[in-house]
Amino acid sequence: MYLRKTIILVFTLSYLGASAQSICKSTFTGQVLDETNHPVIGATVLLLPHYTGQVVDVLGNFKFENICAGNYKVRVQYLGYQDEEFDLQINDKANRVILLKEDVKQLSEVVVNAHHDAAHTEYANSFTQLSEKQLDELAGKSLGESLKEVAGVSSIQTGPGIFKPVIHGVHSQRVLILNYGIRQEGQQWGAEHAPEIDPFIASNIVVIKDASAIKYGTDALGGVIVVNPPELPRKAELGGTFNTILQSNGQSGTVSGMLEGGIKNHDGWGWRVQGTGKRSGDFHTPDYSLTNTGIKELNFSTSIGYHKENAGFDIFFSHFQTELGVLKGTAISSLEDLANAMERAEPLYTSSFSYQIGEPRQEVSHNLLKINGHVLTNHGEWKIQYGFQNNNRKEFDIRMGDLAKIPAIDLKLNTHTLDAEWETLHSDKRTISLGISGMYQNNQNIFGTQRLPFIPNFVNLSGGAFAVSKLFLNQWTIDLGTRYDYRYYDVKGFDYKNTRYASSFSFNNISASAGATVTLPENQTLNLNLSSAWRPPHVAELYSVGTHQSAAAIEYGLLLNDSTNEVMNIKDVNFKTEQAVKFVATYTRSWQRFAVEVSPYMNYIFNYIYLRPEGITKNVRGVYPYYRYTQTDALFTGVDVTGTWHVSRYLKVLPKVSLLRASDVRNDDYLVFIPSNRYELAVRYDRPEVSVFKNFYVESKLKYIAKQYRAPRVITVRQILEAEEQDVDIFTTDNSNFDFMAAPSGYGLLNLAVGASLKRDRVQYDFRIAAENALNQSYREYTNRFRYYADDVGRNFIFSLKCIF
Amino acid sequence: MKNYKNIFRKITISITLISIGFLSGCNSNDPKKEDTPELITKATLTFTPIGGGSSVVVSATDPDGDGVQDIAVDGDINLVSDTDYTLTITLINELAAPTDPAYDISAEVAEEGAEHIFFFGWTNNVFYNPTGNGNIDNRSDGINYNDSDENGLPIGLSTNWSTSVNTASGKFRVILKHQPDLKSPTSTSSDGETDLDIEFVINIL
Predict the structure, then answer these.
(1) Mean of the pLDDT values across residues A58-76?
(2) In chain A, which among 454-513 make CB contacts under 8 A with chain B?
(3) Among A67, A417, A690, B45, which residue is least crowded by beta carbons within 10 Å?
(4) ipTM for the whole complex
């Protein structure tokens, strides 16, 4: 819905220049109101076929100037309202008040981009969208960093370049990412493994924060991140965008371009090519350089498709490739090294700025091929999609001699997915969708690392079937869904002695979801969702052995015997799959000038798998703490609040609050790396027109991230070493969770931005200048894994320019 | 309408064919056994009396590598008082075959001498020369290194020691540091990554 709107906008823009050359002096003004006579702020008015769209202001007003007299089609759209379309003859001056009707059905139906002809039973209830405009303002950031703009979403960070999204306190295997409708399958088990997606391929990103999206499979215990592409053009008109982003911190440059069009005399065919290149050097804190934190990235994608009213297909291919430096000062190999690193004012190896990326570093590539088709018949819509993903991850450590040139971890993961779905036609009473999905996955350690493999080779065969339905009863919308999944693993690897082991086993379980949305008087809506989801364990959680990049700890999987380290059979271990019950309520209300959304949630995860500190072992390199994957019951409760206050016609204030509490219920303890409470206040001045500029805005955003008071006990490295000296294993008496360092204090950051658009000939130029951490604060973030070693990044100036043609 | 169905059917068939092709070609998930050249499972210290006589040999072994078992030391270092010794250190990986280049890690350390350095520490004045308590806590404290790297900086695979005149007992600690681009006349035992950190009881009899 929204997507198509923006595409139309892009195309109509290209006509602007051409038409404006004739003598055209007419104006068309008006106001967009809802059924209660309140302005529909943000609605788009499109003047078709030859003029651009406009977004109405805070009072619902719009104004088209210098247009040619003639006959037009006016289309007004806004998410959650039914489209309004009428013909209009404009001579000299025209004025209209346009009333939009609320569309209750559409409100609760995002989201995975598809055809709009059939019903949409996506069952996403509690969701937040990063729109194209917001993504533009985040251009140059990684996917994980961009998502932090969504209330309730934060990140587990590994230095300044690696961001892993966290929804309501859970991450990695518990967050499902859908890239162009395909489950993203990378090496998601590692906390320092960021999603392999170029955010420039998205026209919007939707975050579903409840577990209701069971259509997409297992694992979505915390939520789903949906990366939506723009729709392919259907007409033979050429268009495109070109982005350039320069950043002072890291002295980085990012360029991204996109070109799209149709095929002449072949209506319905469309194509797009897109590419992004990024180069960044060492980031810096207010006081020192973060040596070896550079980034090199090169991505491209291409797609072609054919779409008509009743059928269509797309072929999409994308390649993502990145090389990431890991802060050199984190290269440690024992507790003694860690103690030294933590006590240093600035990290070891700190040197002046450089673009060079040395060890430790990561090289990751991800290819995706997707083919999908759909056809609309009298019996409903049929959809089928096939995806092939090829992921390669290499991790290079500081190693002896020539070994530094070969990766310490080298994994190849191939995944095939096949999904088929049938959906009923749109009806006023109910919609039903049925589907099946299958996955074949093969993980291989590439020979030649000259190190014991951290995770084994495995084959994963999965299959599932779902049924979801949506019922419409007056002001109520009811969502119901259920799903069955089966997963089979065939594992082959080498244990700590370098002795081969092999095993195969399977899991199966059911997920279910129920939700209700009701529209209440006085612009109120309430949505309630209760869902239960499960996830099979990842092989890494079962079989991991060894030390991991810059962790200074040894990790053991669930299936390793705690005294002999031998690999055990899963049947001999008391293992139960993780199962979550999540409840999310979302209440929205809007007044004349104020709108608020409050969304409390509770997520109880049974048999939650986490790394628990278990003891200390001595090897030739020194003393190491070791962690073992263990199960407990965990509870995550919190609330996300966002508000919009239209202070005046152009000025608005946007508060945002995310509160979260997480605990280990079985052991009455806290969990480590849980995001602390976050508060944000943005003041934004938006003006559709200032002299020659359009869409002018100035924004000042103040963020306050509180200290995490609900953190596990602190045992310093020196305490562990001292106890070891006296032959005391401090974990034998109390192995509750711990952290090497107390949670850092809270901090406030000020971000400033100013932007505007300029139209010249057929091209629109969007400028943006911003300063992040404008006051150059020194701070450390609790969920940054490098907080033991170094401060976070200092002030960053960003200049970006986007050309749309 | 017929046309679209046709296209759709073709896509479905090709997808099925592609998937079958991939599935049948992807069954080789048998992993190959890696060599593990960095894994040190045994460190041996050999004190050879310079004036002749039998050597004193002690070693520290960690047969399970990254497993939970602690490193085991096979005995104390028992040296004769008022005697000059040469200490040589051998590091081996018993998981590799003795013929394998990955077996002898001390050779690798010698080869990469410019990036490696041994530090020593002891208590209770068990040595007459060098004096003090070693260079782990203070780099400038004396150690009689017998070897050096291409930059003329010490390595420590071979060192000389003179035991104290009187009997004494204490601890003897050996640390091997990997200091790529960090090794200098002043780099200390807290710089770089630890490759080895072992401790023995030492008795001067």
Answers:
(1) 80
(2) 456-459, 490, 492-494, 496-498, 500
(3) A690
(4) 0.73
